[in-house]
């Protein structure tokens, strides 16, 4: 299965009304989220795709762009992403009747960097609206880092795709 870990796009300051859970995307964040969604059409393997995202507003809003751009077999929030609980998310995936060809996860720092290191043994920085592509042969197996793409690269990819 390929796993695409996406950090949410730029959001309002943490002092926004409603607190951290209700921080909305900024104008730049909305542009970057649309770019991420467009790039996924080029990056994804063929086959069923699932989308899981943190229930926090900025990740929900980032995920909405992906929902509009792709045919998804599954699309749902999962609290484990907000909490940084990779084991709970993997357990959820194992319980699916049919494994997707690709799992897209929209989440937060520092969790995504830790997950990438746990899954591949590679430590990377994870800027907002970046896409990190991994491949795992099976559940709970060490994965391979395929690509780590920032918005500048995603823009070029979309122009070529």
UniProtKB/TrEMBL annotation:
It comes from the Bacteria. GO terms for molecular function: hydrolase activity. The keyword Kinase does not apply. Pfam families: His_Phos_1 (PF00300). Keywords: Hydrolase. This is Phosphohistidine phosphatase.
